[in-house]
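S.,

As promised, the 2-acetamido-2-deoxy-beta-D-glucopyranose run. Input:
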Amino acid sequence: MMMWWLTAGVVPVSATTPMLRALNSSYYNPMLPGFHPDPSCIFVSEWDDTFFCASSSFNAFPGVPLHASKDLQNWKLIGHTLNRQEQLPCLAETNRSTSGIWAPTLRYHDGIFWVVTTLVDDDRADDDASRWDNIIFRSDDPYNPLSWSNATHFDFEGYDTSPLWDEDGKAYIVGGHAWKVFPGLLLAEANLYTGKVGEWSNIWNGTGGTAPEGPHIYIKDSWYYLLAAEGGTGLEHMVTMARSRHLYGPYETNPANPVLTNSNTSSYFQTVGHADLFQDASGNWWGVALSTRSGPDYTNYPMGREIVLVPVTWAPDEFPVWSPVSGDMNGWALPPTSKDINGSGPFIDEGDVIDFAPGSALPAHFTHWRFPISESYTIAPPEHPNALRLRPSRLNLTALNGNYAGPEGQTFVGRRQQDTLFTFSVDLDFAPENPGDEAGVSVFLTQNHHLDLGVVMLPLNSSTTVFPGTDNPIPLREGNSSSQLIPQLRFRGISYTAVPEDIIAPVPAEWTGKTLRLEIRASNMTHYAFSAGPADSMSQMNTLLEVSNTAVSWGFTGVILGIYCTTNGHEMGGEPAYFSRWRYIPQGQFRD
Ligand SMILES: *[C@@H]1O[C@H](CO)[C@@H](O)[C@H](O)[C@H]1NC(C)=O
Ligand SMILES: *[C@@H]1O[C@H](CO)[C@@H](O)[C@H](O)[C@H]1NC(C)=O
Ligand SMILES: *[C@@H]1O[C@H](CO)[C@@H](O)[C@H](O)[C@H]1NC(C)=O
Ligand SMILES: *[C@@H]1O[C@H](CO)[C@@H](O)[C@H](O)[C@H]1NC(C)=O
Ligand SMILES: *[C@@H]1O[C@H](CO)[C@@H](O)[C@H](O)[C@H]1NC(C)=O
Ligand SMILES: *[C@@H]1O[C@H](CO)[C@@H](O)[C@H](O)[C@H]1NC(C)=O
Ligand SMILES: *[C@@H]1O[C@H](CO)[C@@H](O)[C@H](O)[C@H]1NC(C)=O
Ligand SMILES: *[C@@H]1O[C@H](CO)[C@@H](O)[C@H](O)[C@H]1NC(C)=O
Ligand SMILES: *[C@@H]1O[C@H](CO)[C@@H](O)[C@H](O)[C@H]1NC(C)=O
Ligand SMILES: *[C@@H]1O[C@H](CO)[C@@H](O)[C@H](O)[C@H]1NC(C)=O
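Predicted complex:
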């Protein structure tokens, strides 16, 4: 049992007969690629035998995405738990990119869907109670975003909170205590409607790994099985278990811990941990966990923490046995393939072909950073049908100090990178007037980690190059002063690791007044290419530069590919930008 990770990533060649093999199925990980950390999944027979999953969203809005599937393979975005500002106004105020919504737990009980989670202000100290805003949402129809309640707040100095119901129907919450104060898992009785909680009781501290967290309790064969994550969410991440005959313990540690980890392996799938368990209609057990496709180098993982699925064997009276995580999996027979699922969002493997037709709305999978100012986003305005008009925000994507933006917001909307290889492109009409006015495309991880290609109004003398493939010199002619403002294409990146210097090239004279196409392409596992050209003449499209994705491989979130419009600090009044012909083309998934 303790040895399996030595061979993790190697797909075992089974010696079993073809007949027996046919009972099992093969599938791939990740189950939900892209920025979907801290999975919590359930199977609900009352809702047409459907699986539902929730994941963390940090400062992204709408928050807590919900995906549904009939077959554990085709996952459809059906909405978001946090979809209206009035549900949780404080999300506007979070400081730091590691703040926001951490680790939701999704449960179904007596006809109600529950999401219990934490709004974290990571700018505050561990022992500052105001760091942890623990909250409960409920819904009687997960396909209807408006059915999700406002947040009900409850007192707990910690995070990763998870509800459970004992056999007598009483509700409890288990959570991870702020670990720098003292690491431990705490339990209390709770009224999930009012947020009133009883006294918190320390039931287990894990096996000694950093940050025992992500707890869930399952009741089976008259045991309380307690599952936890330990080791932190990086390379040491693991899943451990303990059990007790009594809810409040004492809990005895599973001698086979860790039950799931890829730590100390060479697998492409690392950081495996933060798990949840559920049973399908045939009674087979499955586990989900988060994982990062980085290999042990842990330097190129722009999609961040994704969701993986593993078969679990859970014999009566015994601890469950989890299969190790790899890209190619073999396990219980999957439910029959079905895409018969309601809900407004796309299936996880679909690309985007979005033309912002009059009367359409922003697609359900489009994401902002904190709350959007809704007037800043107009689909098909009269002066430009089939475009999305962005009104500039004063703040750019970095904003004041890389941590905060506040109620005035940042004009940005994007979609998650969900494929190792992809091409994302949009067309841009933009006539900037004031110095600093800018609109463009971004590979956005956090306010302190983003790579942008924009058109920005800058003085001629700030140019650093001529756009590749065009031979017209910088248009400095007699009578034009060096401080004359002209629209320029600019690459600008910010990260905690090295990024290329800004590259600034005047928009080539022959493109002036034309619709431009801006493109970001991941053509291999490590680099993004940023390109531009006139939309009506693809032969003139050229790559300005290629940038390593290590700049956006960091922290808790994953890359969002999107568009922005800003005045870079000037008071409002900047020109709007019109984006049209939005395309995201999936081009390959690396699993090895
Ligand atoms: C949610 O909160 C808002 C703002 O406080 C309030 O107007 C609204 O009535 C609340 N909705 C529900 C369903 O309680
Ligand atoms: C976040 O930071 C900003 C600017 O530093 C500050 O004005 C604001 O009060 C902070 N908000 C919270 C909730 O700490
Ligand atoms: C957890 O650790 C704390 C601090 O070391 C200790 O006081 C407590 O007894 C431990 N809890 C359990 C359940 O072992
Ligand atoms: C990985 O190896 C190190 C060093 O041998 C060890 O301390 C650690 O416990 C191992 N981690 C896991 C999760 O097995
Ligand atoms: C089928 O999958 C289960 C769960 O992973 C495993 O225990 C069992 O050995 C597999 N059977 C075969 C024939 O591969
Ligand atoms: C989809 O919604 C319709 C209308 O509410 C309902 O009749 C149908 O059963 C739903 N289908 C699924 C697969 O949930
Ligand atoms: C804009 O971005 C730059 C570089 O990332 C940053 O230094 C500056 O503070 C930002 N300004 C505003 C107003 O958002
Ligand atoms: C630059 O100067 C030339 C020659 O005087 C003039 O024709 C042109 O319009 C000027 N360019 C701009 C952008 O003002
Ligand atoms: C560009 O020209 C303006 C006005 O002459 C001057 O203030 C500024 O320093 C120059 N900038 C650069 C980068 O040379
Ligand atoms: C990806 O492409 C970049 C730019 O062409 C190149 O420098 C890098 O070595 C490539 N990486 C891999 C893993 O092939």
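The pocket of 2-acetamido-2-deoxy-beta-D-glucopyranose (ligand 2) is lined by residues 93, 95, 121, 123, 404 (CB under 6 Å). The two ends are 24 Å apart (CA to CA).

- D.
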